[in-house]
């Protein structure tokens, strides 16, 4: 409702027309949702699924590979990319009734991406 008020005020300011009034009441908003066939759902993280069983087995398998290959701990690295977002993402959104659920969302590109790494000996690099 607040967004509708802001849009109306911007349009009114551009048109320099102050004769029209607009009240974004709860009734107006409910009729708007019904008219446009929208419903409110909770947003989940990006649609991606991992194999949790394989992930649970991996540390032991990696340790065996390192020992069998006789690799020094200075040459065994773990690197992770992370993004720092500075815009607040919404927790909920409206969808058409034809869409039963959000399939995930593509996050905004307003971010700082970091690549952090460290080796098995405890040395950290970035």
UniProtKB/TrEMBL annotation:
GO terms for cellular component: nucleus. Signal peptide: none annotated. Keywords: DNA-binding. InterPro entries: CenT-Element_Derived, HTH_CenpB_DNA-bd_dom. Residues 1-42 form the HTH CENPB-type domain. Pfam families: HTH_Tnp_Tc5. One of its GO terms (molecular function) is DNA binding. The keyword Ribosomal protein does not apply. This is Tigger transposable element-derived protein 1. It comes from Trichonephila inaurata madagascariensis. The lineage of its organism: Eukaryota, Metazoa, Ecdysozoa, Arthropoda, Chelicerata.
């Amino acid at each position: 409702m607040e967004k509708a008020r802001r849009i109306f005020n911007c349009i009114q300011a551009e048109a320099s027309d102050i004769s029209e009034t607009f009240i974004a009441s709860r009734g107006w908003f409910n009729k708007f949702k019904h008219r446009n066939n929208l419903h409110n759902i909770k947003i989940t993280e990006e649609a991606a699924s991992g194999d949790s069983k394989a992930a649970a087995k991996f540390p032991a398998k990696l340790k065996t590979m390192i020992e069998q290959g006789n690799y020094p701990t200075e040459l065994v690295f773990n690197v992770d990319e992370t993004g720092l977002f500075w815009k607040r993402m919404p927790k909920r959104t409206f969808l058409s009734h034809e869409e039963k659920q959000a399939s995930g969302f593509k996050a905004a590109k307003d971010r700082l991406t970091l690549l952090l790494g460290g080796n098995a000996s405890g040395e950290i690099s970035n």
